[in-house]
Amino acid sequence: MKFHYSKKNLGPKDALWQRRLEIFPGVASWTTLLGMLFISVFFPFPAAIITISFYLCWLLRLLYLTFFLILSYLRLNMEQKTNWMERVQGIDRLVAYYQKLPRRFPWDSFSRWTHRLELKTLLNSKQFPPASCDIYHLVIYPIIKESQEIIEPAIKAISQQQFPSKQIIIVFALEERATEQIKAGVYAVENKYKSCFLDCFTVLHPLDIPGESRVKGANVTYAAKKATEKITKRQIPFEHVVVSCFDADTVVGEDYFACLTYHFMITPNRQRSSFQPIPVYHNNIWHVPGFARVLEAGSSFFQLVEATNPEKLVTFSSHSMSFKALVEVDYWPVDMISDDSAIFWKCYIHYDGNYQVIPMYVTLSMDVASADNWWRTVKSVYKQKRRWAWGVENIPLVLRAFWKNNQIPLWDRFRLGFKLIEGHWSWATWGFMLSFIGWLPVLFARREFASSVVYYNVPQIASIIFNLASFCLITSAILSIALLPKADVRYPFLVKIGHALEWLMIPFILVFLGALPALDAQTRLMFGRYLDFWVTGKGKGRVKKIHP
Amino acid sequence: MPVLRKIVFYIFAGLYLTICPLLILRLLGVITNPQTHQLVKTGIIYVSSNPPNADVFINDVKAHETTPTVIRDLLPHSYAIRLELKGYQSWQNTVPVVEHKATVLENILLLPKNWTVKILSGLAFENTLALGDGNSLLEWQTKDIKDLYILHLNKEPSADNTLESPASEVTSVFPEEFIYSDAQILRFFTVEKSPFFILHILVADKHKYLWVDVRDKQIHIEDISDLLPQEPLKLWWEYNDEKNIYAFYHDRINRIDIKAKAIYPNIPPENMPHTKKAVRPSSDIRESLLNENNDLWLEFTAQKIGLRDKNQTSVQWILQNGHNITQAFWANNGNTILFRDGTQVFLMDKETLGHLQPQKVTDVLLDSSVYYSEKTGKLYYIKPDDKLLATVQILHHKPILPKNIADTLRLKEFEP
After folding, report:
1. Yes or no: is domain B22-109 CATH 2.60.40.10?
2. Of the residues B36, B53, B54, B356, which has the fewest C-beta atoms closer than 10 A?
3. Structure pTM?
């Protein structure tokens, strides 16, 4: 379906619905919070019942997510030993390779078992991939404030890939409004690494192109269009190109592009697919305040859990996709902040639901948002989370599209729409419900309620639930330590213990750097106070190591 | 993985749908009777004591936790509750439990087996008077102004004082060289919550009025005699106002500005600052005291002590066999009443569950006042035998650690 995935230039009816649906998420969240406040004060009995029901739901959901977090982490761990390039080369001679694979594996070869399953699926689909030597990677780095110190490790990491770097094209999408120093840094990196790749060039994004907002999506779209011209000139079929849009601080492991190539090749419907790695924030993890470490570990965990549910997976941050699909849907939105998730929805709607995200159990590392001092780091992190929460701007667009698109099965529209709405609603409300509102019935207890059994049982039951939830907290702390890179400090063991204790800041983080930014974003959308794109401060305390 | 995810999702959804109703029933106090295997509605008893950590016995069976504690899953019935703590008299009562309701036994004051008396000064006094803010106590030996002393209640002698070794932290209010050192005290004027007081003294047949502020180490005295040319019936001021006093006469009220040394005569009553005044239902009630929650009056006559809801006029008499009740105090966060009947001081629980038995605390000097401070938890009085200023610890000041949010809200910490 051709759908104008934008809030601008709409007809009167569409504009009206667009506005109504923009108001909807904020209203839902505020109604929940204020409604619970109201019920807690005036109807404490039902409020207590709702509170306990909510706590139980939260606990079970937490246990459910923790279960899949552990599974996903184990899979990630397992796949770290995978030789992706070997598999890529195996697919080049698919039938022979498949037949030679042993049919029975040792018990710890789940990875090979899934590999065999994927090969069988590919064979049955008859949608064979191009040869690996014919597959190219287009990597776009949007840059506005990132210095050479930040960009260079990322490019260096790509130049040292297992996958032939001569099949990689690097594009620096540089904003014209960047400073001369930034531009000089970009050109320096370009010149230094040009010879390593098939091509490496910079595209200067002019200011104030009509129809564009000052968003990253506009920049990378402009660069992608320039890259399209170059790819066309080289006569490379778009079907053979995988495009990756990375943040400027994204550092990939040496097997990243081999892994990406494998997933591109093994996926039958590869031209209708995005490929989502697991983002980790290890570049400067040991040089930021503890709360930032915990927060970004939580973000990584979220993606780990999401990876276990590919049917509902949506692209996030640095990811890859079929270049052909990108061109067909007319690139990233040029007037939206959340271009990373928006491109998925755009593709999903365009292809009438025939679009998917393939999770990749490989990590790529980025910077934790940071600044000069603790307080500025708090502000920086807050603004980043608010920008992530600005993905709520997709809700009105998606719902309008779903309403019009009858080609997408109704059940799929319902479950994806529900997940999108519920995800943002719980993001903005659950932190407050757990930390404050749940205690209001007891706090505002009048005499009648204060002399009831319910008044005394609420704290006891809540206490038991929270104690059970601490199991999930401990699990998260252990996994985050396991996921962290080695600390380049004198007593790494003590540092890791300290990091485990940092997870006790969860109540603070949950509210002030979790729920509050989300509520802020939804409220702004509700009142039509659209966010400007704010560039996350990065590079503070950068470790001069390449991500493993 | 998607299949596994669906399976696990349905398992958790089933768990939620199963556990949630059971949890709600638990929340409402509905349990399965172990004998009849039927659902029954229960009530609870919440009990806290001062001091805490007392053993709780329900029908002679010891509970797992000490006070403050909640005893759950009680079938609607009457239960004999007993509290025991080493060094204290046991407390017992029979309380009813109603379904879905909590029977609250809050801040039960445990009385020591032996009251420990502490002497505050080696000087003998004839009477004592607390200032309105409760931070200081005036005591005097005679009516001479030089025999007026003060005890700051937050600066008491150290804990090892006993009857055998009295200390002298009580100090003279006025210095020896004070110009009115030969004056005779006629009256004291104090106001509730105010740290100031006014002395009406007689100096060489002249009436003088002294405004005294004792908050600092150096006492501040203001002679306001010129502003009170006639003897007032009463003097009153707002407790936090250091500037204005209201002098009540037979036919008028004057406002006096101490700082500006000005008199504003004939102030209309409606221009007076609002004060809480009890509407006493009968004229023989000697005093009315509002509790901390501002919802209950404690009222007493010479023979009776009663409680009256703030918005009602009828008094519920809880003691009717007194002799000459002259003073009463709310204590223990409004759960206990301390009162003076003749030359004896008694303690009594406010709760009317069961028979009320006032407990004697101590004897006091005839015609002297006693004072109870909720801040320090102590009773201040003059001993009848040697007229020494003494104190008895009524409440204990160890912080009561809450066991759950309900305790946090309902219990208060005491000052160390």
Report:
1. yes
2. B36
3. 0.80
